[in-house]
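Appendix C reproduces, verbatim, an entry submitted by the partner laboratory led by Prof. M.T., so that reviewers can inspect both the input and the predicted structure.
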Amino acid sequence: MSTPIRSHLATAGEEFTDDANAMRALAEEVRALHDQVLAGGGPQYVERHRARGKMMVRERLEALVDPGTPVLELCPLAGLHTGDPVGGGVVVALAEVSHTQCLVIANDPTVRGGTTSPTTIRKLLRAMDVAEENRLPLLILVESGGADLPRQADVFVPGGEQFRRLTQLSAQGIPTVCVVFGSSTAGGAYLPGMSDYTVMVEDRARVFLGGPPLVKMAIGEDADEEELGGALMHARTSGLCDYLARDEPEAIRIARGVVAHLHWRRLGPGPAGPADEPLYPAEELLGIASVDVRVPFDVREVLARVLDGSRFEEFKESYGAQLVCGWGSIGGYPIGVVANNGILFSPEAQKGAQFIALCNRTDTPILFVQNITGFMVGTRYEQGGIIKDGAKLINAVSNSKVPHLTLMVGASYGAGNYAMAGRAYDPRFVFTWPNHRIAVMGPKQLAGVLSIVRRNAAEAAGRPFDEAADEELRQATERQIEEESTAQYATGRLWDDGIIDPRDTRTVLAIALTAVHSAPVQGTAVFGVVRH
């Protein structure tokens, strides 16, 4: 029976206040990075774009979506700390269009002319994954200069996959709509070419395999841009344009009309219960988890501020207490919850594997809440079968067929990341809090392991061990791992779908759950062989 979780959080204490202030500072740091992405390619390029009478990319998106409905951008900080433009010069978002949840891809032409970097490719392919797995109509708002030519060696081969994936979406009956606002050149010409529906803006859209400079170099022809690939030519002569719009607002209205006439039917079940607010305020989520992921906390305090009505039916509460499992709902959608309350032992692994199987029998999506340093190590636990028991949990996660959503609210180290549906285990969505840390192990542990290896190697070779040099290496390693395990480092490499403010957790998960229910939600009774 589901009953409300009773919170024991000491919100008036100094520790809570300190943790909340530290988390708020991290969230504001992430928000400042988002603001930089919202600013586009910089004042000079934004001003030039507006001087041409064009809408900014998010203005196009705002005009496209249903008024008053939420928009959830995915991977907004992709490329952070990689050298590529942050955001990849492209917006990817879950949004409601004509009362239909869609996946929208939109180029930002103020960022290097909308050209494609390696990060752009990874973000586009992630978008295709989301559209395919969740059976979401795909809208592409195009204005791009094509490949970033100085980076052609990094984008040409992997970039071709987006066109293959686009045709595969169409073959699966997932509608694809392409709206061309400006240049769509070379490989980019295949975006409208391979979409189910194309809309082009008159006197603006330019779609050609080779622009005038390339045509001149290839065949010596002096080609006119409009005759070569203008919207009017494609509407009257080539037939590539299905709908000709006079301006950008009309193109967006046409795209909304196309989505409306799809009469798209969601194949998953709708909400099954009330989407009532939790009993405790979302603001308190700031003070639950410390920014120091070594500090433990009760994950039930997070669930109490995220689940509908704070209701939770806990499974095997007294067994394997370091793993919290049970049933609840978010946005009215029933979910199973697998959440860490610490390191995983054999009972936790067995409990988690059983619970995942039960969720599959009832076709119930699973929310994994990660705060995990890994599985327990040591002679006692190895002899007790921690490997085979951990394998049961990883087996269950790997072969589960119901949708998985993963929320990282603290540490995500070692095989704990795998057992709790990390990115490599194909959850539908992965979101993180700003304090999140991810690595093969903690910085001190990793540096210490390497130190022991060096010491053992010196002893085996009969060499003296240089303590001072080793200490220097340990400190350097710790600094490196600290830097490479942050939430910002991870999101820049698309290891997740975005860093979210803890206060937005319920809203973000509700949107994600709405998306996964556009596709059928079905479990399985088939899992891999396990040792007992």
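Residues 267 and 519 are 5 Å apart (CA to CA). Additional entries are available on request from the coordinating office.
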